[in-house]
Amino acid sequence: MSAEATSINLLSPVILLTAAVISVPLIKRLGLSSVLGYLIAGLIIGPFGLAFFYDSASILHVAELGIVMYLFVIGLEMRPSYLWSLRKEIFGLGTLQISACSLGLMAVGLAYGYSWQVSFVCAAGFVLTSTAIVMQLLGDRGDIAQPRGQKIVSILLFEDLLIVPLLAIVAFIAPNHVVESTSARLQSIGIGLISIAGLIAAGYWLLNPLFRLLAAAKAREVMTAAALLVVLGAALLMQVSGLSMAMGAFLAGVLLSESTFRHEIEADIEPFRGILLGLFFLGVGMSLDLNVIKNNWMLILSAVILLMFVKASIIYLTARLAESSHSEALDRALLMAQGGGSLLLYSLLPP
């Protein structure tokens, strides 16, 4: 009985790992990104393939930690002094690109005959690029540390900061919006700002002494546990404050970027980051609803093509206005043309 129960419990992870081990190398041999391999594997083993899994949402919830850890590793590579040097890209270029793209994408929704409220929601959903996909592609190419990669990372970070304000605006224009909720929303923003300040203070005064103390104990597994605690603790703090978990992990990484233990911490986190990020893309592939695509394929195809074309064109133009070269602007436009989630596609479907 116990042996049988154990085999059943191990079946799910074995299937997930088998799908990843088979699909990703095959896709990489074709010269394509490993992201596509994970997505195809998820689609094959998901509800619309071999049906090994039916609840992709539970896998996605766990696998989102892969994105959190990825942003922590990226934060370790970004010293505060270097981030300050990118302030023009983060707020200047980020504001220009997102504002222009929002207006262009909203015009697409209006052209499809939707109200300005629905068009704004669609634009807000599609203007936010998928951090997981872009970061994975940049990492595969080794461009994260390059100047053009840093500009893309800066824009992604600015988009992450915009999640809460955009959600507040969407709630404000919703038909069931009530004025009484404004004070509660302002209180949530205040809580978020206090949480960010508290995280920065804790990182500045506590993290480095903590890791020095643990290093003196000469217990490597405790250092690994501490690194995971910092990542998950920062993500949890941001989550309960109504902010992005990825932003909390990134801030924790930045605060440790000047630490003498930076490379050791990065080595401890890397295996967890890689496995969970792959699991995230597997979950995304499992969650693809082929029936929705089949029943509305003309609307989805035309909307996706038009939205991606408009977004890519505007990103290219804003990059050129910011004095980027043709190749750099084109590369940024192609990387960031996709949207940050599937909610947009469903919002375009008829009720």
| CATH fold description | Na+/H+ antiporter like fold
> In the residues, how many domains can be counted?
1
CATH class value: Mainly Alpha
Tell the overall outline. Answer: globular
Short structural description:
This protein is mainly alpha-helical. The chain has 16 helices and no strands.
What can you see in these coordinates?
This protein is mainly alpha-helical and 351 residues long. It has one domain: Na+/H+ antiporter like fold, CATH 1.20.1530. It is built from 16 helices and no strands. It starts with a helix and ends with a helix.
Question: Would you spell out the secondary-structure blueprint of this structure?
Answer:
Elements: H1 2-29, H2 34-45, H3 56-76, H4 80-85, H5 87-111, H6 116-127, H7 131-141, H8 147-173, H9 181-217, H10 220-240, H11 245-255, H12 262-286, H13 290-295, H14 297-321, H15 326-335, H16 343-348
Helix pairs in contact: 1-2, 2-12, 3-11, 3-12, 5-6, 5-8, 5-14, 9-10, 9-11, 10-11, 14-15
Write a concise keyword list for the protein shown above:
single chain; 351 residues; mainly alpha; Na+/H+ antiporter like fold; 81% helix; globular
